[in-house]
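Researcher: Following up on the earlier apo prediction. This time include the ligand. It's guanosine-5'-triphosphate, with the SMILES given after the sequence.
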Amino acid sequence: MKKGFLQIVKKVVDEADILLEIIDARFPTKSRNADLERIIKLSGKKLLLVLNKADLVSIENVKKQKELIGVKSVFVSAKKKQGTIKLREAIGKLSDKNEVKVGVVGYPNTGKSSIINMLKGKKSSRVAAIAGFTKGMQYVRISTKLILIDSPGIIPLEEQDEILMVMLSAKNIQSLEDLEGTGIEVAGELLKSIPEKLKNFYGVEAQNGEEFLEKLALKRKKLLKGGSPNITEAARLLITDFQRGKIVL
Ligand SMILES: Nc1nc2c(ncn2[C@@H]2O[C@H](COP(=O)(O)OP(=O)(O)OP(=O)(O)O)[C@@H](O)[C@H]2O)c(=O)[nH]1
Ligand SMILES: [Mg+2]
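Model: Understood. Below is the ligand-bound prediction.
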């Protein structure tokens, strides 16, 4: 985690009584941040995992993941305003004070600000498709008993997390140095977790990411001069579809 972010996270954890870690319901394990959870654990504060973007996951998958996670967690869709009551109840159960402060933390673009708006019932925290939108800490009063603290997304330092940032739509295509290579890795990840869904969506089956993009390029007539598959364009297509939430996991 970058130093500046670490300071903000520590400050939010310090200020809050309860922490909501917002993760992506499409890939809950990958979108949990171990450093963040360590800081929360050390602080002795309570942690509730909120799996957002449940609208991008099928019901069967939600059920499966619930069993796998094993920690206190709630599925919501801030976009569809689903899960508000469950989330309020879960926060209520953890609250043991008259006025409770809840810090909302997690990776960029996971929907922290959207969840705050959902709980508030009207737009109060600004939401954006651009990652890194929320700057600094922001206090939002929800009721006489509840104050939420919005925070900027945690950007990891490690380079291998670029794929995760792409999958969270926290890094856009224009800023990728190697679109083809990233596309191959994203395709590989999706082939591992949802080969059937990819097959249904694109009509393409493959053993690995490279083969997948090759076949996708041929299928969609994305060809180079001479007729060989244009992997870069296939990568652009896959990442764009995924980032726009067209592929439901
Ligand atoms: N499909 C879907 N999209 C969502 C959902 N919640 C948020 N989004 C979208 O995800 C993007 C990021 O939402 P924000 O609420 O700004 O996310 P954030 O975590 O506050 O982002 P930063 O402040 O940049 O870290 C926006 O384009 C939202 O419309 C959801 O439940 N489903
Ligand atoms: Mg935000």
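Model: The CA atoms of residues 200 and 247 lie 10 Å apart.
Researcher: Noted. I'll compare it with the apo version next.
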